[in-house]
Amino acid sequence: MAATRSLLLSLSILLLLCFNTSCKDTHDLDEEDLSFLEEDEHDAAESPLHGYEDHDFENYDDLDDFGDGEGEYPDSESAPEVEIDESDVVVLNGSNFHDFLEKNRYAMVEFYVPWCGHCQALKPEYAAAATELKADEVALAKMDAGEETELAQKYNVEGYPTVLFFIDGVHKPYNGARNKDAIVTWVKKKIGPGLHNLTTTEEAESILTSESPVVVAFVENLVGPDSEELAAASKQEDEVSFYQTSSADVAKLFHIDPKGKRPALVLVKKEDEKVSHFGGQFVNSAITEFVSKNKLPLVIYFTRASSSQVFENPIKNQVILFTTLNETEKYLPIFQEAAKYFMGKALFVYVPMDEEDAGKPVAEYFGIEGSAPKVSISIIIIIIIMHSPPHFL
Asked: Where, subcellularly, is it found (predicted)?
């Protein structure tokens, strides 16, 4: 027990020193320290990835393409041709791009290049999503970014495929999984009602057992300014369900004081901290910030699926624990305890360094070897996340 307290105290002190000193000056660091991250995707410069030097890893999908001893990602020209029905995918160029956006309130556009293996892999999934979303009056299109360089630059296309979703001409990047179901689900959330009414305790109990995380507001009326602000905030979050209720019995189930001031709002998730109470001004921006900072677990278990929670999070400071799977129960509780003091200020990430699918490649990327647990609080890691994920993610 004494050793545990000592480790927890040491970790907390180290973090406090980091955030009170060097973390404030991350932008002033010598960029040469990070030069290994700036290699061009067509450059053959030396890579920090041990054993993966010849591959251009853009994201976690790339890890699927290699096994032990396998060669490079197969060139798209040598891959067997599979006939794909793309009849519902509109082909765009500089002459019809703007007309397409004007005619379609909801539109998704993929910027691709023919030689990109990931673009080829997305092709059948994207085509299937286009067919399914026709019924919702959502148009899917694609554009060769290599040919239409001016438009690609306008929309800051830096990697392939880049997928943007437009509502009334205003775009938002799609960073979800590259499969039909994920695309369809994400789009339907964007075009459908983001806010739902809760009127019965039966509905509330069902949500408590089946969904996480959820945001619930206790309001005077289910229509009006408060509801509008909440609805606007719901559109900013892809992974959180938003509800509102005027029922005191429903509010009580979500740990809201039914006799307290309205509007009141909580975020509920299936974690140790469970309920987070909102105490700010009841406006879209404040609600969005609150949800963004509180929606994640105390410690994120790093996997392919959770990688977006790390790299797309507005919180850029990160503390990463590397340990083996069989030592998780020994060290993770200590790590979780320290994380409580830094909610909203840093992401705490657990990487099982001997887990083959994601943990081991990440550990190798950061040069973590051996079996001893290590906590990585690195300015370099923070800068990496500020700019972009490592190439192999």
From this structure: Endoplasmic reticulum lumen
